[in-house]
From TrEMBL:
FAD-binding PCMH-type domain sequence ranges: 1-178
Alphabetical keyword list: FAD, Flavoprotein, Oxidoreductase
Designated name of the protein: Putative oxidoreductase
Spans through the membrane: none
Xref: PANTHER family: XANTHINE DEHYDROGENASE SUBUNIT C-RELATED
KW Flavoprotein (keyword) present: yes
A Pfam family per the record: FAD_binding_5
Molecular function via GO: FAD binding; oxidoreductase activity
Length: 291
């Protein structure tokens, strides 16, 4: 059985949208294809009449500064993000998350856009982007619009993007300034399985011993990527000590929904390990923010 009948390779976002709207349906966009092609072969995704390869769109392959933001195109391979000094200097949590995605061969092909587009609540890149306060640039026939990263997700595997008429073009991350830093850590099964039991990312801004601002992302902590905003509010403008961390963990457990997953871990185990994971991730970002 053929997985697709027609293959198109647009050279601009506008051409890609034109193909998405007018090519023989069903139309499926592809970049790395590391998940998509496997799902097609296994029958978990319907075959495409038209496959649209986005990797030749220049705007979707850039890593650059744009104003006060870092821009990463949706088709940039994970391995290229890992070697970018610009990303490392402004979004170290994303570097650490990307370094845990699959293995080297997959990272050479897989893209950040694909990692986010699958809309999984614990995806490594997604959790890092959520803590970094990223926004997604969405393309459709009306042009480009910005959407806060968490607004992309409706549920496990369910995206707010209309796949028949819209594409994720790229991501914007605020540039890092003095006193700001981020970190990402994961607890997972053996490396050969590479499934996260729990992911955590923290971005913070400090002033001496005071937590001026903090963003926390944990996954899976619910049906969508989870930001424990109550814990963030609790820590904001507070002097850091062990008691503050303990109180923040309590609020994370109250606000989150840590479910049992047969292939990963029980709800009880996830609740048990979240305190240590959060503390380690926060402390890593805190130490980095000194520099």
């Amino acid at each position: 059985m053929h997985l697709w009948q027609e293959f198109r390779q647009p050279n601009s976002i506008s051409e890609a949208i034109e193909d998405l709207l007018n090519a023989p349906a069903p139309v499926v966009p592809i970049a790395g294809g590391t998940d998509l092609l496997l799902e097609m072969r296994q029958g978990r995704h319907e075959p495409a009449n038209t496959l649209i390869d986005l990797t030749s769109v220049p705007e979707m392959n850039l890593i650059e500064k744009r104003g006060d933001s870092l821009y990463i195109g949706a088709c940039v391979p994970i391995s290229q993000i890992l070697t970018s000094t610009l990303v490392r200097n402004n979004a170290e949590a994303l570097i650490e998350a990307c370094d845990l995605i699959a293995g080297p061969q997959v990272r050479n092909t897989a893209t950040l856009g694909g990692n986010v587009a699958h809309a999984l609540p614990a995806a490594d890149g997604t959790i890092a982007l959520a803590a970094l306060g990223a926004s997604a640039e969405i393309a459709n026939h009306n042009g480009l619009r910005m959407l806060p990263i968490l607004e992309l997700f409706l549920g496990p595997g369910k995206s707010a993007i209309d796949k028949t008429s819209e594409l994720i073009a790229g991501f914007y991350i605020p540039l890092s300034t003095q006193g700001q830093a981020s970190a990402f850590k994961r607890i997972m099964r053996p490396q050969g399985v590479a499934l996260p039991i729990l992911n955590c990312a923290v971005w913070l801004e400090r002033e001496e011993r005071t937590v001026k601002e903090v963003r926390i992302a944990i996954g899976p902590g619910g049906p969508t990527p989870f930001r424990p905003t109550a814990a963030e509010a609790l820590m904001q403008n507070q002097i850091l000590d062990d008691e503050l961390i303990k109180e923040a963990v309590k609020v994370v457990l109250e606000q989150g929904s840590f479910r049992t997953s047969p292939r990963r871990a029980t709800s009880e185990y996830r609740k048990h390990i979240v305190a240590g994971l959060f503390r380690d991730t926060f402390n890593q970002a805190w130490e980095r923010s000194k520099n």
